[in-house]
């Protein structure tokens, strides 16, 4: 039993362990999973001096309230998150992208995300977790991953098996930029949709449904008319694919998506926009913009360079 641990006083909304996810298991119906917002995941680990692929705690909308027991440890939160640290003598209003030291008996209360969805909590050490297929990432739809594939719950203890002794204070100035248009490339069934349906898709606004989760983002708005068939033979799916079911309301496949699907695909969200896409909260508006594949490749290279540059600044 570890002498360093967190006790969950309040679990929050959809609080799970996530890392980079699991590769090459589509053939048995297992998606990548992993952190929804990859950049914020990486920055969280870097801020506490960890290897970049270590698991962190991901939460949605409201995070957990945790009480710490053990030796001094550094923590950091990334995203657009409101949180506070409660010590015996005082209360600290926390800033994202800045590391803080916790001591025995301190509490951290992750109150809410701010007009976004996901936040990340990292500690200077390694959570004591079991891997499944090389990853601890939790997929609650399939009960896959650490913690028996389930969300974290009130009263649980999160043991830390190994502390990182380098607990230097770290900070970075970073702003989570909002996105006006989500850029997409044409899907494999683009010609299934009418001219009016395609015009609606690229020119009209959609609203993010409350039914969205880590598996998919459901949209509500102008119907996307299908002129061929509302169903196809099931084909492989990827993160970011936009399917249009018979009701004409698009669904964007997210990190825990099913690996096959039988709805026509009108487009695919470019990888460079995925982190910002998943942070669009329910009730918000969303618009799409078509770009070419070559432009999507260039944008992803720029996104990777910018991410690495941010990491190098910490």
What attributes characterize this protein structure?
314 residues; alpha+beta; Cyclophilin; 2 domains; eight-stranded mixed beta sheet; seven-stranded antiparallel beta sheet; 4 helices
Largest sheet data: 8 strands, mixed
Approximately how much beta-strand content do the residues carry?
A: 25-35%
Helix fraction, binned, reads 10-25%
Q: Number of helical runs?
A: 4
Strand neighbour order, sheet with most strands: 21-14-15-18-17-20-13-22
Query: How many strands appear in the DSSP assignment?
Result: 22
Low-confidence stretches: none
| Silhouette | elongated
Task: Give average pLDDT, whole number.
Answer: 96
Report the structural category: alpha+beta
Q: Mind telling me the C-alpha Rg? A: 20 Å
Which series of helices and strands comes N to C?
Answer: EEHEEEEEEEEEEEHEEEEEEEHEEH
Integer count of domains:
2
Report the end-to-end length measured between terminal Cα atoms: 33 Å
Describe this structure in words.
This protein has 314 residues and is an alpha+beta fold. It has helices spanning 38-47, 195-203, 274-278, 293-313, and strands at 5-10, 16-18, 56-60, 65-69, 73-78, 81-86, 91-93, 100-102, 107-113, 118-123, 125-127, 157-163, 182-186, 206-208, 216-220, 235-236, 241-243, 251-253, 260-261, 265-269, 285-286, 288-290. Helix content is 14%, strand content 30%. Strands 21-14-15-18-17-20-13-22 form an eight-stranded mixed beta sheet. It is elongated. The mean pLDDT is 96.
